[in-house]
Every structure is written in C-alpha cells, then in structure tokens.
Amino acid sequence: MKGLNVLAAFLGGAAVGATLGILFAPEKGEDTRAKIADILRKKGIRLSRNEMENLVDEIAAEIKNEADE
C-alpha cells in the first residue's frame, strides 16, 4: 500500500508540475488554451471554449491554493 501512495504522490506532483509549466510558459494564453484543447480532442474529450476557460481557471486556482499553503 505504501508503494501505491508513493506512486500517487509522484503522479500528482507530475501533473501539478506540468500544469505549472503550461500556465507559466512564455506563450500567449490563447495559444496555450488551443494546445490544451487539441490534446484533449485527440484523447476524445470535447470541450467548448467556455468549458475550456473554466477548466484552465480551475487549474490555476488550485495551483494558487497549493502555492499559498
């Protein structure tokens, strides 16, 4: 069970790191959102522009909360 916790922590850290890298990349937000939408479409996930903006806002808020703790 301990190994599973380590794996979960690693994957969680990797996801947060990837998200931070995307959010703070030197590209314009519009370009980054388009790339995220393309990746999600390739995975079979379809989001409207409004849903994508909400998702990005949620991720950014979550990261900010983690950074504040």
Automatic annotation (TrEMBL):
The chain crosses the membrane at residues 6-25. InterPro entries: YtxH. The keyword Transmembrane applies. Keywords: Membrane, Transmembrane, Transmembrane helix. It holds the Pfam family YtxH. This is YtxH domain-containing protein. It comes from Caecibacteroides pullorum. The lineage of its organism: Bacteria, Pseudomonadati, Bacteroidota, Bacteroidia, Bacteroidales.
